[in-house]
Amino acid sequence: MDIRMATDQKAVDNSAMNELHWLIDMVQTIEVGLVVLDRDYNIQLWNGFMENHSGVTPNSIKGKNLFEQFDYLPAKWLKQKMESVYLLKNRAFISWEQRPFIFQFKNYRPITGRADFMYQNVTLLPLSSLTGEVTHISMIVYDVTDVAINKLQLKSANERLEYLSQIDGLSQLFNRRHWEQCLQKEFDRHTRYGSETSLVMLDIDHFKAINDTYGHQAGDRVIQNVSHTIKKSLRETDCAGRYGGEEFGVVLANTPAVNARFFAERLRKKIEKLEILYEEQLIKVTISIGICDIKPEVNDSDTWLSQADQALYQAKEAGRNCTIAYE
User: Which GO terms describe its molecular function (predicted)?
Assistant: First the structure.
């Protein structure tokens, strides 16, 4: 009986040893980072994944302080996360979208080779003693570079598509639909806050004659040059668009009519000086400009736009190549 009991106990011990060996082997070879920290943030476990990507061996780093060994870590922010795990005895998550990485590991994945570093998700787990007290924290580091890069590329593609849907292909200014949205937003902002805002409408003089004389491709070149000059004249808060054909609109935020006139005159003179070369032919152009701020009696953006158009029509009637403000 004693021999059988001893044999059974040996079998149990061997089984436990095997399980422990398997567990240690899994910890060291698993494709995620495993780090165990004590209450003072000293490293108690540093698995093979962490060694492979950091170049630091478990034996050389065990017992050393995490934040002293990796001084680039966001210590204050990360310690707050860890303290909440100790206090609440609940796990905490750190997403790559919240912070792209915790450990500065290089990216070696062939599919996402363009990424300079490894994007990481990190889970902080409370580790309790037999008494139930949380004495250690486990950091589980996941390499999510493939997922992150794919999502970022998709986001970039969607942003590019969104941008292209707002842009007029020929002029590279906003198209009419998006520009009218900008116009409405600025009118709404004026209605809400009373900020001074002006609208500038401009038209290339004798554009039909340019097309008839030099051809439609020359007309396109003229539109591109005028648009480029408009774009270079804008502030970040301004919004310019091709309203249709050879007509353009510029919304000048936080700009009274007197300042809008200065802007319009500077722009008119710049375009007057343009020398547009097309197939060895020099084309000179001018523009007519109408400007209008938002009058107290104006109740909607359509009326505002109509008044600016009326000022533009008056500029053309006055002989073109001039600026008229709506009165």
Answer: diguanylate cyclase activity
